[in-house]
């Protein structure tokens, strides 16, 4: 999925970046962006382009460029949504997203990225859930609040008491309809908070 995310100024120079996977050399990213995006003819400019098997996905906002890169044939629609949602989250923190506000809140922007994306995969875009996990100290807001532990807050569970089970259990139920050749798998879960689960389904045909 997404390997790295950059915020570039209007000249293509990096303001900040976060390398999520460490699988792409980053020293030529800015140069490739300038050569294939900023210096290209206007009629040929595309928000998505590939250089040396690395896909570049670009979202322009104001005088900045939000750039996501990944190996090969990544899901560019998902990356584009991530870039747009990232801008929306910054708006809720700073009000107006500019190069100056990003530079003034450098560490906060990186903290938000760490909460929103884990190893290149999107986690949450919800501002209320992010504000519950990330200490809000932007220059727009003078008040400070104690930082709660980042336990993966979910916005739609804010007013629900935590649920704890003595044992984490998962019960799968398989339903087969032979005439229409339809299979469905239903799962009942009893899990405390947000537990990581792996599921392996094997099919065996009786002779």
CATH topology category name: Beta-Lactamase
Taken from the alpha-carbon principal axes, the silhouette is globular
Task: Provide the gyration radius in Å.
Answer: 22 Å
Strands ordered across the widest β-sheet: 2-1-5-4-3
Helix percent reads 25-40%
How much of the residues is beta strand, in percent? Answer: 25-35%
Q: List the domain count as a whole number.
A: 1
Based on the coordinates given, report the CATH architecture: 2-Layer Sandwich
What's the rounded overall pLDDT mean? 77
Largest sheet: number of strands, sense, barrel closure: 5 strands, antiparallel
- Number of helical segments with 4 or more residues: 5
Distance between the termini: 41 Å
Structural class: alpha+beta
SSE string, helices as H and strands as E: EEHEEEHHHEEHEE
Give the assembly state of these chains.
Answer: single chain
Secondary structure tally: strands: 9
Could you name the CATH class?
Alpha Beta
Regions with pLDDT < 50 over 5+ consecutive residues?
141-152
């Amino acid at each position: 999925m997404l390997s790295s995310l950059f915020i570039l100024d209007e000249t293509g120079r990096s303001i900040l970046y976060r390398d999520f996977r460490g699988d792409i050399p980053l020293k030529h990213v800015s140069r490739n962006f300038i050569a294939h995006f900023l210096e290209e003819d206007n009629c040929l400019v595309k928000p998505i382009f590939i250089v040396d098997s690395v896909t570049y996905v670009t979202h322009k906002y104001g005088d900045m460029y939000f750039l996501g890169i990944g190996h090969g044939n990544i899901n560019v629609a998902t990356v584009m949504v991530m870039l747009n949602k990232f801008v929306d989250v910054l708006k809720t923190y700073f009000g107006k997203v500019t190069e100056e506000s990003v530079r003034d809140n450098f560490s906060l922007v990186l903290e938000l990225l760490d909460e929103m994306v884990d190893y290149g995969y999107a986690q949450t875009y919800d501002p209320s859930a992010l504000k519950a996990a990330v200490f809000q100290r932007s220059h727009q807001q003078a008040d400070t609040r104690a930082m709660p532990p980042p336990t993966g807050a979910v916005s739609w569970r804010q007013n629900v008491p935590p649920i704890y089970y003595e044992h984490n259990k998962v019960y799968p139920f398989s339903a087969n309809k032979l005439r229409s050749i339809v299979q469905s798998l239903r799962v009942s879960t009893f899990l405390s908070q947000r537990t990581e689960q792996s599921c392996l389904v094997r099919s065996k045909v009786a002779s």
